[in-house]
Amino acid sequence: QARMKRGLPKRLPIAGVTNTILIASGKGGVGKSTVAVNLALATASSGKTVGLLDADVYGPSIPIMMNLEGQPRIDKRYMSMGFLTDMSQPVVWRGLMVMSAIQKLLREVAWGPLDYLFIDMPPGTGDAQLSITQNIDVTGVVIVTTPQKVALVDARKGAVMFSKVGVPVLGIIENMGAIKCTKCGSMTSVFGSGGAGTLEKELGVPVLGTIPLDPKIQESCDTGKPVVVSEPSSDQAIRIYYFVHCC
Ligand code: ADP
């Protein structure tokens, strides 16, 4: 009601969906889609019904990460712009077209009944983010960042934007933490360390955990076998199962 008084549209839930969780990042390339895919699969393996929407309209990567192609099927709970466009061609669209496509993906796909719908957001704080947060009754957002200063600065902006539009920030996942040397076992923090902890103190948003930089994760993404499925007992998969219980 307060929103309607201020002339803002009423936020409606997606039909048949109990929880809608956004996976967002300030920058591209920090592992947002990787986290979205693995969180969705880990949640599904804990017995929940789960859907996954790739709303990263300009750079959809879920079809590759899930090893999917062709037209979406009605019995599957994944949707991506990558199914509707030629993945080898760039999407050259203005903001209004992006917003309209996202509305269709949210409202015209038979999502329900679902316990959780994970939405892999485009990076940044633009039209798509506003379109989703202003129209959908969102449960909360998980922000993915690397420990690097440039990524953290943008992650902070993202967290502030979501709070301003009334979307609870469930936590931060720090991805691409230290890498372990396969020869001597020593750890190297390629993108620095501790940055998410600073955000936690500053914004009062919990760090749900850190995922190391690990070539196996990259490989599992490129071969369409997300790590929680291909190596469910690996340290990385266990960390992601832990996030599921935190969120
Ligand atoms: P975003 O969605 O933020 O653009 P992606 O999830 O597409 O980022 O990840 C970018 C690239 O980094 C992908 O090639 C992915 O396989 C790789 N990647 C993501 N997280 C890790 C990690 N922890 N270790 C190694 N590679 C990773």
Automatic annotation (TrEMBL):
Output the Gene Ontology cellular-component terms. Answer: mitochondrion
Q: Name one GO molecular function term.
A: ATP-dependent FeS chaperone activity
UniProt keyword annotations, A-Z: 4Fe-4S, ATP-binding, Iron, Iron-sulfur, Metal-binding, Nucleotide-binding
4Fe-4S as UniProt keyword: yes
Name the Gene Ontology biological process terms.
Answer: iron-sulfur cluster assembly; mitochondrial respiratory chain complex I assembly
Its family?
Belongs to the Mrp/NBP35 ATP-binding proteins family.
Return the protein name. Answer: Iron-sulfur protein NUBPL
**Lineage, uppermost ranks:** Eukaryota, Metazoa, Ecdysozoa, Arthropoda, Crustacea
